[in-house]
Amino acid sequence: MAFELPALPYAEDALEPHISARTLQFHHGKHHNTYVTNLNKAVDGTDMANKSLEELIKETAGDSSKTPVFNNAAQTWNHTFYFNGMAPNGGGKPSGDLLNRIEQAFGSFDKFVEEFKTTAVGQFGSGWGWLVLDNGQLKCTRTPNADNPMVHGQTPLLTVDVWEHAYYLDYQNRRPDYVQAFLDNLVNWDFVARNLANA
Ligand code: MN
After folding, report:
1. How many domains does the chain have?
2. Residues with CB under 5 A from ligand 1 (ion)
């Protein structure tokens, strides 16, 4: 069965004013959709067509003969994870066990915010900022292009897309302002808590 573009978990204008409907129209309707389309083209008629995205990502990582499959499978997965990691009226502080775990790992919630921002903003060129579980420890990390922490033995908990297409219409070159708005107003902490509970 062919891979399909998942619907956004909210309306296109639901994240305004932090991320505009116009950005989501392009980001989900064009960019994300194109990764899904190109993934289907790359695996159609091969034994890869019936594998899960996670299997494709792990099995094709680092295999230069399968770069198109890896890039499009990982970008399909990364975007779905990114869109699900945001919610209208999100952001701010989580609560409960998740907040305790963050405070334990980073010293305080404010220190986590600083580290997540520095890590995501510091990605040179296109890529992703992440909160991951690594050997039982919460960490901030970043990956270039389509790369995903699961390839490196880590469990993704949250991601912010720092490709320019994610923020240029709304923030132009101001990546730090976009990442700040993501943390202040958009993070879906329930999604992060579920990912941590299932890790
Ligand atoms: Mn993107």
Report:
1. 2
2. 161, 163, 166
